């Protein structure tokens, strides 16, 4: 087999990357623009964070208020229920006592009467 010739790639000399004055000025301008944009985004994020913190504090305060109101409402409800139960127990007790009194009067009335026994005389 015939031998191949080695092909060599001609090596290119690296081109120097020299920028023109206008290109360098344009790049500096773009970098400055990007810095401004980054700064604006950063400030916007700080503003948003601040607003979020304020909103969070407001929501927490409202939640605390609601918890307090709910506790007060629950306490008032408990008092009302206790009052109703207590009044209900009194009514039941009074009714029971009244019924006892009525039963006692009925039994007294049935037992009270003429204790004189009359006997007919037989002739």
Molecular structure report:
- It is built from one helix and no strands.
- It is rod-shaped.
- The model has no long low-confidence stretch (mean pLDDT 78).
- It has one helix at 21-111.
- The chain is mainly alpha-helical.
- Helix content is 74%, strand content 0%.
Major sheet attributes:
none
Return residue spans where pLDDT drops below 50 for at least 5 consecutive residues.
Answer: none
Structural class: mainly alpha
Global Rg: 52 Å
Mean of the pLDDT scores? 78
Counted beta strands: 0
Short description:
The mean pLDDT is 78. With 123 residues, the chain is mainly alpha-helical.
Based on the model shown, name its key terms.
123 residues, mainly alpha, 1 helix, 74% helix
What topology does this entry show?
Blueprint (H helix, E strand, L loop, with lengths): L20 H91 L12
């Amino acid at each position: 087999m015939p031998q191949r010739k080695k092909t060599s790639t001609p090596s290119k000399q690296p081109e120097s990357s020299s920028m023109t004055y206008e290109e360098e000025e344009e790049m500096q301008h773009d970098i400055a623009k990007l810095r401004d944009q980054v700064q604006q985004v950063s400030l916007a994020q700080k503003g948003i964070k601040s607003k979020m913190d304020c909103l969070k504090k407001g929501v927490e305060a409202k939640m605390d208020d609601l918890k307090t109101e709910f506790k007060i409402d629950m306490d008032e409800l408990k008092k009302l229920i206790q009052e109703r139960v207590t009044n209900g127990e009194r009514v039941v007790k009074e009714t029971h006592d009244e019924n006892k009194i009525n039963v006692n009067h009925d039994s007294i009335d049935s037992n009270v009467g003429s204790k004189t026994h009359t006997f007919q005389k037989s002739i």
